[in-house]
Design the sequence.
């Protein structure tokens, strides 16, 4: 799973889930599930955007943006996502860190749409 | 510039700078400066860690972690870093977003060191 542009998020405050991971060897269904999770996340209430990058054979970082902590909680508890989280711990990730953060301010080369 | 492991950060709260970027074509001194900035950031007071990944030919995400907003401010104003920021806007980045966020909670596959 990869994204091609910085996410166009509204004016802060909003929330970010920073997921940093190191993959195990082999796919084991990872690619298909990752694509499906991006699709599903985009259908969740309060979803604002997602950014993802992975160095070839190295660290991956996915940041998803959300309107509120409640929206993040609902996404974490979503049934299909929970199954994927379990498979992630068991099969796909050698190591990971997940951080929930409140975005306080933001700027960019191109202006973001007004909230 | 790339990192190979999720950063080992202390217990929240702490701060994250999420820098998402799309590179222009060609190097134009980018690689050397990026390595130097990681080295310099690591010498700044309040620096906690850094994670970075770039898809081949695509989006890059660098997340640096800091003890406080003051530490982030001091790093932003650091003289050599300011020169790099200007070159970034002018030469290296087709597009970018920079977000400052307060990390509220974190967990991982491997336990972090206690703060």
Sequence:
């Amino acid at each position: 799973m990869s994204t091609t542009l910085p996410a166009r998020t509204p004016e802060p405050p909003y929330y970010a889930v920073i997921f940093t991971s190191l993959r195990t060897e082999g796919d084991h269904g990872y690619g298909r599930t990752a694509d499906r999770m991006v699709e599903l996340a985009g259908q969740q209430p309060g979803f604002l955007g997602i950014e993802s990058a992975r160095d070839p054979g190295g660290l991956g970082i996915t940041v998803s943006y959300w309107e509120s902590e409640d929206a993040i909680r609902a996404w974490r508890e979503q049934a299909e996502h929970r199954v994927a989280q379990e498979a992630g711990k068991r099969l796909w990730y050698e190591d990971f860190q997940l951080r929930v953060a409140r975005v306080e301010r933001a700027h960019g080369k191109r202006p973001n749409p007004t909230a």
Summary: The first strand of chain A starts at residue 14 and ends at 23. Chain A has a mean pLDDT of 92. Residues 14-103 of chain A form a domain with the Alpha-Beta Plaits fold (CATH 3.30.70.100). Chain A has one domain: 14-103.
